[in-house]
Every structure is written in structure tokens, then in C-alpha cells.
């Protein structure tokens, strides 16, 4: 009986001996999507790279024990390799007509070395814009480690007084909503192609230097219709460059995540 009790205690302790961390992506959209990972500079590529998810399907990326940092975004209408996409092809190889604006709904993570005591950091970034709704659900909800739900709609993409219509329209339909900064600095036909250092681009985009965080947080960007929309429909996401209080979250080292698109 004593031997059985010892085995049982060991078995109960196993969940604490984390051997890996995962991010599970689920597709709740009415079409296939492709999950595209991009590793931060000089980090390890996350296997197996771009993953196609059919309607209702899910896939889990395994995070290296040595740590990983980067972002993911959804793409749509892609070829068999997950490239040449109708929506979300914002990095090379670009379409013959050029790359899309980087206005996808992005989810970003930084995982330190497993079990080193450091926190995991994550966010939903809508700094450049958004495409489809999304949520991030940590396996442990506590403090800043919280459910981040972004239920914004493309139908709500606003008009801004200075930069105009923020919608990205392709083949007669709205596929993305640009942030005021991205509308300002992205080349035509989707943006105005103006330098961030010119006029109010300084305050829509807040390049540092010369604009530092506190100055940015008190500038015209926080009064834009876009930022108001994000703060209303996705209050725990980044809506502009220094929106850290709303957007940046940290969790215990051994956390896993679920990311759902089209919530």
C-alpha cells in the first residue's frame, strides 16, 4: 500500500515537471486559413513553419525549451505552400502586384528558457491594423496573464479626418483595416506613402527618437477613431506603438496558450 501511495504521489506531481510548452491555434472561420510564424531576429525557426488549418481544425506549435520569440498571423486564399495568398501576403515572396500591407491581426509571444523562472510575455498587436477577430487564452489565468479577446469587425473600420478611409479593399471587399500610422506611411494604393518624420506622422507612428513613450501616449494617436475602436472592442490589445498598459501581458514560465481566429 505504501508503494502504491508513493507511485500515486509521483504521478500527481508529474504536471509540475513541464517538458514543453505549446501554442494551439484553432480555425473558427468559414474558410481555410494559413498560420504564418515569423521568428524574431536570429532566433530558431519554429517548425513546421506555415500551417494550413481547415474549418474547425487546430494545430499546436511546440516551443523550444531553449526559448522562442516571434509572431503569428493568419493568411487566406493561399497556394499549396502557404504563399501567394489573397490576404496576408505581407512579406516576401510578394504577389506580382506587390506585398499586402502588414495589417493582419498579429499575436506575439516571447518564451524564455523553460523553467528558468522568467515570465512569458504575449500580446495581440493591432498597431499596423487588423484582419480577422482573435483571442489568446493562457492555460493559467492570473493577474496580467489574462484572456485577450479581440472581437472587432471589418465593418467597423473607421474613417479618420486626416488620413481618410482605413479600409484595405481587394476584389471589391474589405479584407483589412489599417491603423492611422500604417495608412500614413504605407505606399499607394493602400496608404499615403508619407514619411513618419513628416507632419502628424510623428504622432500617429511615434518613431523613437524623437517621440518617446509618454509623449506618444498624450498625442493625437489616442484620439483617433481607430484607437477608440480597438480600446472598445479589444481593450487588452496594442492599438498603437506605446499602448503597453493595455496590450502587454505576462504569465508564469510554464504556461501554454490557445489562439482562436474568427471568434
Described by strand count, sense and barrel closure, the largest sheet is: 6 strands, antiparallel
Strand order of the largest sheet: 3-2-5-6-7-15
Mean pLDDT: 92
Count the beta strands.
16
Q: Give the quaternary arrangement of the chains.
A: single chain
Q: What is the strand content?
A: 25-35%
The N- and C-terminal alpha carbons lie at a distance of: 49 Å
* Gross morphology: globular
Task: State Rg.
Answer: 20 Å
Tally of DSSP helical segments:
6
Determine the structural class based on helices, strands and strand pairing. alpha+beta
Low-pLDDT windows of residues: 1-18
User: Fraction of residues in helices?
Assistant: 10-25%
- The succession of helices and strands, N to C, reads HEEEEEEEEEEEEEEHHHHHEE
Describe this protein's structure.
This protein has 263 residues and is an alpha+beta fold. It is globular and about 50 Å long. The chain has helices at residues 2-13, 180-185, 201-205, 213-217, 225-233, 244-247; strands at residues 21-27, 33-39, 51-53, 58-63, 68-75, 106-111, 120-125, 129-130, 134-138, 148-150, 159-160, 164-165, 167-170, 173-178, 249-251, 257-261. Strands 3-2-5-6-7-15 form a 6-stranded antiparallel sheet, with no helix packed on it. The protein has a 5-stranded mixed sheet with strand order 4-1-16-9-10, with no helix packed on it. Mean pLDDT is 92; it is low at 1-18. It starts with a helix and ends with a strand. Strand 11 and strand 12 (164-165) form a beta hairpin. It contains 6 helices and 16 strands.
Amino acid at each position: 500500500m505504501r508503494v502504491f501511495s508513493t507511485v500515486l504521489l509521483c504521478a500527481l506531481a508529474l504536471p509540475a515537471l513541464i517538458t514543453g510548452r505549446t501554442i494551439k491555434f484553432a480555425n473558427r472561420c468559414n474558410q481555410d486559413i494559413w498560420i504564418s510564424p515569423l521568428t524574431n531576429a536570429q532566433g530558431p525557426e519554429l517548425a513546421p513553419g506555415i500551417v494550413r488549418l481547415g474549418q474547425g481544425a487546430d494545430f499546436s506549435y511546440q516551443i523550444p525549451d531553449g526559448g522562442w520569440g516571434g509572431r503569428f498571423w493568419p493568411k487566406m486564399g493561399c497556394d499549396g505552400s502557404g504563399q501567394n495568398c489573397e490576404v496576408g501576403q505581407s512579406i516576401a515572396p510578394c504577389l506580382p502586384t506587390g506585398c499586402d500591407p502588414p495589417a493582419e491581426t498579429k499575436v506575439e509571444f516571447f518564451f524564455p528558457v523553460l523553467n528558468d523562472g522568467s515570465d512569458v510575455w504575449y500580446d495581440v498587436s493591432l498597431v499596423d491594423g487588423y484582419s480577422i477577430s482573435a483571442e489568446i487564452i493562457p492555460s493559467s489565468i492570473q493577474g496580467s496573464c489574462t484572456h485577450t479577446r479581440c472581437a472587432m469587425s471589418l465593418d467597423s473600420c473607421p474613417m479618420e479626418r486626416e488620413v481618410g478611409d482605413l479600409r484595405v479593399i481587394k476584389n471589391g471587399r474589405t479584407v483589412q483595416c489599417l491603423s492611422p500610422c500604417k495608412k500614413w506611411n504605407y505606399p499607394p494604393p493602400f496608404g499615403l506613402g508619407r514619411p513618419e518624420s513628416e507632419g502628424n506622422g510623428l504622432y500617429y507612428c511615434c518613431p523613437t527618437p524623437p517621440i518617446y513613450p509618454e509623449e506618444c501616449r498624450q498625442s493625437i494617436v489616442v484620439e483617433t477613431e481607430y484607437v477608440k475602436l480597438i480600446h472598445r472592442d479589444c481593450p487588452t490589445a496594442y492599438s498603437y506603438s506605446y499602448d503597453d498598459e493595455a496590450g502587454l501581458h505576462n504569465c508564469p514560465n510554464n504556461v501554454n496558450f490557445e489562439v482562436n481566429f474568427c471568434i
